[in-house]
Amino acid sequence: MSVESTSNPRTPQVLKDISVLTGGQGGDGTLTVSDLLARYFHSQGLYVYNSRAVLSRIRGGYAAASSRGCTSPILAQKAEQDVIVAFHQDAVTFGAKSLSADGFILGDDKVVTTPDAKNLILLPLSITAASKIGQPLYKNVVAFGALSVLMGMDRTAARGVVERRFGRRGEEARTKNLNAFDLGVELAEQNVGHTARFSLEHGTASNQVLITGNQAAAYGFVVGGGRFFAGYPITPATSIMETLMKILPPYKGVVRQAEDELSAINMTLGGAYAGARAMTATSGPGFSLMTEALGHAGEAEIPVVIADCQRVGPSTGEPTRNEQSDLLHSVFASHGEFPRFVIAPGFPQDAFDLMIASLNLAERWQLPIIFLLDQALGENLQSAPRMTLEHATVDRGKLLTEEALNAMTAYKRYEFTKDGISPRTIPGMKGGQSQVTGNEHDEWGHVSVNVENRKQMMAKRMTRLRLAKSELPQPLLWGDEKARVGFIGFGCTFGPIREAQQMLKAKGITSRFYQARTLWPVPVETLAPFLSSVDVVFVVEHNYMGQFAMLIREYVSSPNIESIVKYDGSSFVGQEIAYHVEQTMKAHTSYGPGKTPIVLHESEGGGF
Questions:
Q1: Is the pLDDT of residue 594 over 90?
Q2: What DSSP string describes 171-199?
Q3: Alpha-carbon span 491 to 482, nearest angstrom
Q4: Which helix (H) or strand (E) holds 348?
Q5: Per the CB 3.0–4.6 Å rule, which of 122, 496, 524, 559 could disulfide with 2?
Q6: Per-residue confidence (pLDDT) for residue 509, from 0 to 100
Q7: Cα 376 from Cα 415, distance rounded (Å)
Q8: Rounded to whole angstroms, how far apart are CA atoms 298 and 257?
Q9: pLDDT at 159 over 70
């Protein structure tokens, strides 16, 4: 056993911002350690950000999770790790390069084979769990107990976290996990000593909640009047359905797990046609299967929300890793032309608010909404204020009451109107009968190939892209309004960009950030003045081609757009973005018309 010398105990280093990486093989319980740490940090009033990098398998393969706690608000993972918990040699091999100068590695001596690694503490985690509890899997809670000593945790609070986490699973699980925690404490005190390596400051974020973007979107669906959901399990969108299974039935809502994505989207169309506010959720491969039904929603003017929680593609790609490469698919999916809105939140409250807005927009404009999430925003746990109901209104658009229907001389489901929106009924209303088809049709819903009718119907549907612009979610602007350096991003890039802004400001570079929330139709009316107000703008996104930058260049003329892209499956950290900006500012001392933009590609590091 290799342990740190205790002959000269050090004074604990007080930290305001700490990050702990836990790595091992799938099935080692890495996510459990990260979850326990997040719960402990939260109990101490710290802001929390948890991220994961696991494989799409139950056991085997390298899996890692990072838990960050800070006295100040945090929005992304940290580049450096202060502690690494290694349940496998790979955690040392892959993680040691990101270890901070004063950090340490807590390793399981059964599997970690580099005793000379920097600041390594080896303890018999799995052997102790197997011999004292009967199952080596409890090594994860043994490790958490040891961390409580090494990280200077409040012992009572840390033990309470374990009790609350496992107490709901029954007395046996509760007792075994509390025993595992106590064994970890004993191991650390006997082999390393009572002196902690770190001491964590208390924070003031006790009023925050821990939530993911997927969970926030699910809550927004319920609060916004959503009452029918159909889906098929697919990473990383599944937690939307799992959350709704728990919270929607008490509000007389229905959740259906379909046999595949084709059934899920068609069930959703049926629910929406029948009068319910309806949604489905999927990821790239499932969204591809849904494209024919998406076109049906456009042709038949059925209001639905389709949440696409993006992952690495194409095909199966990397189901558990982060990317934003479905943007162009969201904008142009399905054959033919029909209107749809693509909406993208950037943080949990945003996901909550924009889901409510999407339900309203879908019904008001009678078209499909693509609600664009991504793996990092969707699955990473973070601190957020309690959701507010400030924007929780319900607008059902031109949904006719029986009185309004009876007052009409004739009901035409697809009646030509100035705003392109036709009054609609709920099936079963007397006098509200109509045909619904995927074929082109006339005002009554009858199949038609009449040339003049086709021209009118296309104009009726497509005019909504123009008329709805003022009602679509507006961008949020962050930073110094007088700054000449700009950022544009959407989704999970929100946090890293905000942290990069803080880092750049500390070095004398002020910036403005245009957080795009409506991606389609391209919000030219707000993008154009933003682009003209800065000398250079960095469009930050997770894909190879710089898809959002491509769309912006197509619709807005600006010579000073530069791309920062990352497509290796890991998420940006603030340091990467700040570094790219600094290097570009050094290379280009001035910006103006005619400058050739530099496309900046992914940097080394930044993931785990």
A1: no
A2: HHHHHHHHHHHHHHHHHHHHHT-S--SEE
A3: 24
A4: helix 348-365
A5: 122
A6: 95
A7: 43
A8: 24
A9: yes
């404490």: which residue's tokens?
185
Fold of 476-587: Rossmann fold (3.40.50)
Domain with CATH 3.40.920.10 in the chain: 13-200
Looking at the chain, the domain(s) classified CATH 3.40.50.970 span: 210-385
Parts of the chain belonging to CATH 3.40.50.920: 476-587
508 secondary structure, DSSP code: T
In the block, tokens 């080394």 appear at 604
Q: Report the distance separating Cα 106 and Cα 538, nearest Å.
A: 39
496 touches 565 (CB < 8 A): no
Which two structure tokens, joined as six digits, stand for 503? 């880092």
- CA atoms of 382 and 460, how far apart (whole Å): 43
Sign of CA dihedral 187, 148, 116, 50: positive
Digit-coded pLDDT (tens) for 370-406: 999 999 999 999 999 999 888 899 999 999 999 999 9
Cut 0.85: pTM above it: yes
Neighbouring-strand partners of residue 514: 477, 488
Name the phi and psi angles at 175, rounded to 5.
-65, -45
Q: What are phi and psi for residue 66, nearest 5 degrees?
A: -120, 135
**DSSP labels, 24-67:** EETTS-HHHHHHHHHHHHHHTT-EEEEEEE--SSSS-SEEEEEE
* Confidence band for 341, pLDDT divided at 50, 70 and 90: very high
Task: Look up the CATH superfamily of 13-200.
Answer: Pyruvate-ferredoxin oxidoreductase, PFOR, domain III (3.40.920.10)
Write out the DSSP string of 457-506: HHHHHHHHHHHTGGGSPPPEEEE-TT-SEEEEE-GGGHHHHHHHHHHHHH
